[in-house]
Amino acid sequence: MDILLIAGLWLDGSAWDEVVPELTALGHRPVPLTLPGQGDGTTSATLDDQLAAVVAAVDAAPEKPLVVGHSAASSLAWLAADARPGKVAKVALIGGFPATDGRAYADHFAIEDGAVPFPGWGPFEGADSADLDQEARHRFESAAVPVPEGVARGVVRLTDERRFDVPVVVVCPEFTPDQAKEWIAAGESPELARATHVEYVDLDSGHWPMTTRPRDLARVLAQAARA
Fold first, then answer.
1. Which domain holds residue 173?
2. Per-residue pLDDT tens for 58-112?
3. Short-list 50, 113, 99, 36, CA closest to 71
4. What total number of domains does the chain contain?
5. Distance between CA atoms of 33 and 13, rounded to whole angstroms?
6. How many other C-beta atoms are found inside a 10 Å radius of the C-beta of residue 25?
7. What DSSP letter does each residue of the chain carry, written as one string?
8. What pLDDT is recorded for position 40?
9. What is the reported pLDDT for 41?
10. I want to staple 156 with a disulfide (CB 3.0 to 4.6 A). Which of 71, 99, 171, 185 is the partner?
């Protein structure tokens, strides 16, 4: 199966470099995406531009793909399911939950000169970054790409209720499946509350398991693809 890999804020397709060979060895076709404004050299990209790139990858897949969204890109993966509900086999969300219709894609951080730079580790101290050593943090900082304002402040638009029939796997890294279920039951993820098929997978790591536990993450994604 094709597995489309969408990294979260500040990351390009190289974020999956250690996951790709593991997925290939497990018999799948990983496709890491470098999106407009996310490592391709453009700075004026919008959320619509990024969604168009993801949808194009879905359309190009020889069979229905598994679409993987990490962190904020969980919303992009879900938007792809909304845009192509009949062409997406399943959505896997790593450490994130899809935004609802009418919400900004990622308005959590300050904008500087038309973009959102990596804010440093302060907002991520604790469970998010506990498993990142200094070398891993330095690599992340060196590779981080400021997110264009048009992406971060882009408004999520969901229009096709058939998205709720697309199976979802919630991969739980810095939180547990029980916590995810509690948050959804409490109304913190209205989209997943309405999804028909949701399963949860525990992955004991920080917020960036593609860096700290790439082999285990690949196995989780391969299992999701097989199921």
1. 2-226
2. 999 999 999 999 999 999 999 999 999 999 999 999 999 999 999 999 999 999 9
3. 99
4. 1
5. 5
6. 11
7. -EEEEE--TT--GGGGTTTHHHHHHTT-EEEE---TTTTSS-SS--HHHHHHHHHHHHHHSSSPPEEEEEGGGHHHHHHHHHH-TTT--EEEEES--PPPTTSBSS-SS--BTTEE----SGGGTTTTTTT--HHHHHHHHHH--PEEHHHHTPBP----GGGGGS-EEEEESSS-HHHHHHHHHTTS-HHHHH-S-EEEEE--S-S-HHHH-HHHHHHHHHHHHH-
8. 80
9. 77
10. 99
CATH number at residue 109: 3.40.50.1820
CA angle 203, 94, 77 (to 5 degrees): 155
The pTM score is 0.96
pLDDT tens, residue by residue, 8-20: 999 999 999 999 9
